[in-house]
């Protein structure tokens, strides 16, 4: 584990007021809701993005679905800043940031081999810049969650990236950065929980927080798929390994049981919820068999248990490799609104 992550701040029990302002911690006005997004999240690379199963326009499609159903208006969404080197170096080593200036390394991270042949200036603009905006969005969502009790970054959730290494379509450690800034800025937050319900093991943030008693990780994942990182598993506080093609009944029972157990065991003061939708039936990489209804119910379980305890929660959308994924995320957000777990009205 890199020294830069070993130095993540440990906060003291003092009032919940920011004490060290980040340039990513933008102010929002009373008419805005704590949903974070901007069009720069989406990736367009001359059609090469289609070589990866990930929907490179997923994030914009979520917003389109919400707009179509007249749930929110774009003007009410909070727009983040791009994370720059000065921000990324809070959690990444200088060597890792330099490594991204080689297109070959980015090609390995994104799993799109032709990217290695592109000039790095194009790779920076068309691939890494969207990731940096989403990383800035996760950082901002942490602040908004502390202020409003909840926040959703329509992007982010790059849980395979740690301080020294990217992979699995994850180039920046946005979860680590969001937690770093909350611990640094809000002195009353001493215990943070990551609830990672993406189909894949969250080995990036796990590697970053190995040995940290103030960060509790609940990870529920398909044990037969990438990344199978045995070293990172040492950081998992509550590990739930699933068989391939697990279905709704078993899955939802385990989520309900283990989210409840984790919250009762650790009593966090801030929660990061990595809400990957690659658990959905038909996903070629997640290889689980959870229905659309099951995903919506899963999200409701997490939000209800966290919100009932009055704990600030930020959600990131993480993996999901089907074209129907965006509509499921939108429907889940609408369900959270209908169940009074979030409010989509400004003011």
UniProtKB/TrEMBL annotation:
Biased composition (Polar residues): 9-19
Histone deacetylase domain mapped to chain residues: 52-334
Key words, A-Z: Chromatin regulator, Hydrolase, Nucleus, Repressor, Transcription, Transcription regulation
GO cellular component, one term: histone deacetylase complex
MF-aspect GO terms: histone deacetylase activity, hydrolytic mechanism
Enzyme class: hydrolase
SUPFAM superfamilies: Arginase/deacetylase (SSF52768)
Annotated compartments: Nucleus
CDD domains: HDAC_classIV
EC number of this enzyme: 3.5.1.98
Source superkingdom: Eukaryota
InterPro entries referenced in this protein's UniProt entry, alphabetically: HDAC_classIV, HDACs, His_deacetylse_dom, His_deacetylse_dom_sf, Ureohydrolase_dom_sf
Catalyzed reaction equations: N(6)-acetyl-L-lysyl-[histone] + H2O = L-lysyl-[histone] + acetate
Gene3D superfamilies with a match to the protein in the record: Histone deacetylase domain (3.40.800.20)
Biological function: Responsible for the deacetylation of lysine residues on the N-terminal part of the core histones (H2A, H2B, H3 and H4). Histone deacetylation gives a tag for epigenetic repression and plays an important role in transcriptional regulation, cell cycle progression and developmental events. Histone deacetylases act via the formation of large multiprotein complexes.
Complexes and interactors: Interacts with HDAC6.
Sequence similarity: Belongs to the histone deacetylase family.
Protein name as it appears in the record: Histone deacetylase 11
């Amino acid at each position: 584990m890199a020294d830069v992550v070993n130095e993540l701040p440990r906060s003291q029990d003092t009032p919940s007021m920011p004490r060290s302002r980040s340039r990513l911690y933008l102010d929002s006005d009373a008419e805005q809701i704590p949903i974070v997004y901007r069009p720069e999240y989406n990736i367009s690379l001359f059609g090469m993005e289609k070589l990866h199963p990930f929907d490179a326009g997923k994030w914009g499609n979520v917003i389109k679905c919400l707009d179509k159903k007249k749930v929110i208006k774009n003007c009410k969404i909070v727009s983040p800043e791009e994370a720059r080197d000065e921000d990324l170096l809070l959690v990444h080593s200088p060597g890792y940031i330099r490594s991204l200036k080689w297109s070959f390394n980015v090609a390995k991270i994104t799993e799109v081999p032709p990217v290695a042949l592109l000039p790095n200036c194009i790779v920076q603009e068309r691939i890494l810049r969207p990731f940096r905006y989403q990383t800035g969005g996760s950082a901002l969502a942490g602040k908004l969650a502390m202020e409003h009790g909840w926040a959703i970054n329509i992007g982010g959730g790059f849980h395979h990236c740690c301080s020294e290494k990217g992979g699995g379509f994850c180039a920046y450690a946005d979860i680590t950065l969001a937690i770093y800034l909350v611990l640094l800025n809000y002195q009353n937050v001493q215990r943070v929980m990551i609830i990672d319900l993406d189909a894949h093991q969250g080995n990036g943030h796990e590697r970053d927080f190995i040995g940290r008693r103030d960060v509790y990780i609940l990870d529920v994942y398909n044990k037969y798929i990438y990344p199978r990182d045995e070293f990172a598993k040492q950081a998992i506080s509550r590990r739930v390994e699933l068989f391939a093609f697990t279905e709704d009944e078993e899955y939802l029972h385990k989520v309900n049981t283990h989210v409840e157990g984790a919250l009762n065991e650790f009593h966090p003061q801030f929660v990061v919820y990595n809400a990957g939708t690659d658990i959905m039936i038909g996903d070629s990489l997640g290889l689980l068999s959870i229905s659309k209804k099951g995903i919506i119910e899963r999200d409701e379980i997490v939000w209800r248990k966290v919100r009932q305890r009055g704990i600030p929660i930020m959600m990131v959308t993480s993996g999901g490799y089907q074209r129907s994924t965006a509509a499921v995320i939108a429907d889940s957000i609408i369900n959270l609104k209908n169940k009074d777990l979030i409010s989509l009205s400004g003011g």
